[in-house]
Structure formats: structure tokens, C-alpha cells
Amino acid sequence: MKSFRSLAVVKRPSSEDFEIVRDRLVDLVPMVDDIKTIEMLERHDLGDGIIEFANRWTAAQRVPDTVARVVAQTGESQHRDRACCGFGDNGGRGPVKNKPIILSDGAWLAPASTELGAWKPFCDRSEDKGATWTRSADFAIDPVQVVGKGAIQPTFWESSPGNVHALLRTTAAKIGRADSMDGGRTWSPMRLTGMPNNNSGIDLEKLADNRLLLLYNPIGQDWGPRTPLNLAVSSDNGETWRDLVSLETAEGEYSYPAIIRSDDGIVLCYTWRRERVRCWQIPAAAFE
Predict the structure, then answer these.
(1) Which 8-state DSSP code applies to residue 77?
(2) Rg of the chain taking only CA atoms, in angstroms
(3) N or C: at which end does the chain have fewer Cβ atoms within 10 angstroms?
């Protein structure tokens, strides 16, 4: 198990409390996979060059109303903001918690879910760089196998062209998995993996050498403790995992993790005891 360096603990939003980590806080936003082509969520300028991103929720039905910012590929500052999801959650709407990914065919794939009664995960696919989204059917979940509300907050990766996979938070004390062979249009029924889950969020990132990194709480108990928080690696497309390090082991809550690749490794962040956001930068050499 290796030791990594924490960049900072960033407090919750206020222009006085934020600390800029490296260049800009925006580089650490959980929902963003490729800053140059995707900037999801509502954007708030807090002053002093600090940007906050946040989901908006409609008051009537509590469904995310995600705002997409489309950035010109030329690098110009011109942009347009619009809601990806209309009232009532009709059609697609972009990502929920975890970042979208860009597939080998250029499509954007956004992990999504609803929590209106039963928990239902699904996928949104965009072939026009976020201008419009097409919603998949909900992933099928066996209620005998998955007791409780179900599964939410998938995280995606593409193993080969058109072959996309999802790991999910569940109420069954284990991480769920679903697979697609057509670029996220249709999905297999969700199955439970051998990885524990405490009904808390997870996130995953694919490295250039096809290994996968997973942030999760290794607790096999529905609504179990959200500590420790581990970083694990898989070399067989997510079938088996090996813990690399426990980023947090103390009492408290360490949850809602996010992980993205950077030019020189990975950057990750997560909720620190529901008080702050802790950010880490891990160089690529650490995974050699």
C-alpha cells in the first residue's frame, strides 16, 4: 500500500473560505471528464477567480435540472447555457453525481439515476456534444437479489469500442455492475459483484494502460459507516480488485468521491466529514 500526498482540504463555498488548488478549483470538479469539451452543471462565479459548480433541483419533483455549458472548440469564450432536462424529467438530462465519458465514437455517455420511490439507474447518450440527450431504459434490477430501494449513481468506462460498463451504488451491501455492447444504448440486467458497498457513492477512472482505479468505502453493510475510503486497482476490466491505499481511516464520513485523469496522473476529491472537500493529486509514476 503506497502513501500519497493530499493537496489541500477545501472548505465549503464562500469566496473567503476557498483555497485554490494548483491552477483553478474547476480542474477538480467531480462531474467533468474532459474540461476542454465538457463543462456540466450550473456555474457560479464566487469572485477571486473561484468557480463553484452545483446541480439545480426543481422544487416540485426533486429531479436534477442540469445546466450544460457548451464551449466553442476554437477556444473562444463564446458559450450558451440551457437546461438539458425539462420539467418532469422527460428525455435525457446528462450526468447525476459521476462524470460523463467520451466514447471512442465521439458520443458522450452520462451516468444517471432517479430516486422517486424505487432507485433506478440508467444512461444518457448524446451524439451532438451535449446539445440533446437520449435516455436508455432503466437497468433491470432483481428485487430478490437487491433488497431495498435498488441502485443509483453509476460510474462508466469503455473497455473497447462500443463495450461500456457501469459500477453502481446499491442497497444490497455490494457494488452492482451492468454492461452494454452497443455504446450505452441498451444494458444488461444489473448483477452484484464481490466488492462491498455501504450504500455510498463510488467513482472510477480508466488509466491509459486500461487498468481501472476505484474509489469506494470497503464496508459491506447497507447504510454502513463511510470510513475507511480506499483506492483500488483492477487489471481485468473490473472483475477483481486490489486495494492500493486507504486515503482515510479515522472516524467520520468520507464519501461522494470523484476521480479524473490529469496530464501527469490522477486527481481525486471527496467529502471530508461533511465539512469540507479534500483533494489529492497522485502522479502517474505511483501506479507503475
Answers:
(1) S
(2) 18
(3) C
Tens-digit pLDDT profile for residues 91-122: 566 678 899 999 999 999 999 998 888 999 99
> For 144, how many CA atoms within 13 A lie in the half-sphere containing its CB?
0
Q: What pLDDT score does 273 carry?
A: 92
Residue 286: inside a domain: no
Domain count, the chain: 1
Does residue 285 belong to any structural domain of this protein?
no
Taking Cα atoms as reference points, which of 197, 201, 202, 186 lies closest to residue 221?
A: 197
| Residue 254 CA: distances (Å) to CA of 74, 79, 223, 230 | 39, 35, 13, 10
Within a domain: 13: no
Return d(Cα 248, Cα 150) in angstroms, integer. Answer: 27
Divide the 288 residues of the chain into consecutive groups of 10 and give the mean pLDDT of each group: 46 34 32 32 41 33 35 40 49 76 94 91 90 91 96 97 98 98 98 98 96 98 97 97 95 95 90 91 87
With beta carbons less than 8 A apart as the criterion, state whether 67 and 84 touch: yes
In a domain, 112, yes or no: yes
Which of helix, strand or coil describes residue 1?
coil
